[in-house]
Amino acid sequence: MAGLEIPTWDPETALLIGAILVEAFVLYVGYAGLERLVGPALMRLLVGGDASAR
Hints:
By secondary structure, this protein is an all-alpha fold. It has a domain at 24-54. 67% of the residues lie in helices and 0% in strands. The termini are far apart.
């Protein structure tokens, strides 16, 4: 039957998909940390006042 076959992946493809997922996770965590460190100061600079009071 068409469409019901189980795909076979070579190890290179699985490694590439794994590397992309790890990179996405690292970027997600990294940008979240950067936002926590720099975000309030940047908001005070751009908007003025205290960004945490909103």
